[in-house]
Specification:
The chain has seven helices and no strands.
């Protein structure tokens, strides 16, 4: 019994201490939005923007470690791959590359990722929404 209390005390102590480790959950300024049509933007807002824009919503649970570390890491990585808040400043080569990547991850149902969907079930893309995003991404190819 004493051993169980000691282990529990250590676990609780570690949990409390890791809450003191800061994470950078900020939203940098929006350079220029993707300029997507309203129908596309609505889907992007619901399914993509939390990880792929400078408009991330940081809910209360994103501030509790160790989840805060994972969520912050996912947002940082998501923004590195594609940031809709800086999307309009891409050159022709990069926008073509990103468009192809958008199409690929949607067709292969890789996005939104499962951990995000578990907490945000409305972010799941319906077939009709996936088709809208794919058609929009095709318009990003240079003419």
């Amino acid at each position: 019994m004493a051993r169980t209390k000691l282990i529990l005390s250590i676990v609780v102590g570690i949990f409390v201490i890791i809450q003191l480790i800061p994470v950078n959950q900020t939203n940098p300024p929006i350079v220029r939005d993707a300029g997507a049509p309203e129908e596309v933007r609505d889907i992007l807002l619901t399914s993509c923007y939390d990880c792929h824009s400078n408009e991330s919503i940081w809910p209360w649970y994103s501030r509790i470690a160790p989840g805060s570390f994972l969520i912050t890491r996912d947002v940082i990585e998501g923004r590195k791959h594609l940031n809709f808040s800086e999307f309009s400043d891409l050159n022709e080569y990069d926008s073509t590359k990103i468009a192809a990547e958008i199409i690929e991850v949607i067709k292969e149902e890789q996005m939104p990722i499962l951990p995000y969907l578990l907490l945000h079930p409305k972010a799941s893309l319906r077939d009709s929404e996936a088709k809208i995003l794919i058609n929009w991404a095709k318009t990003l190819y240079p003419k």
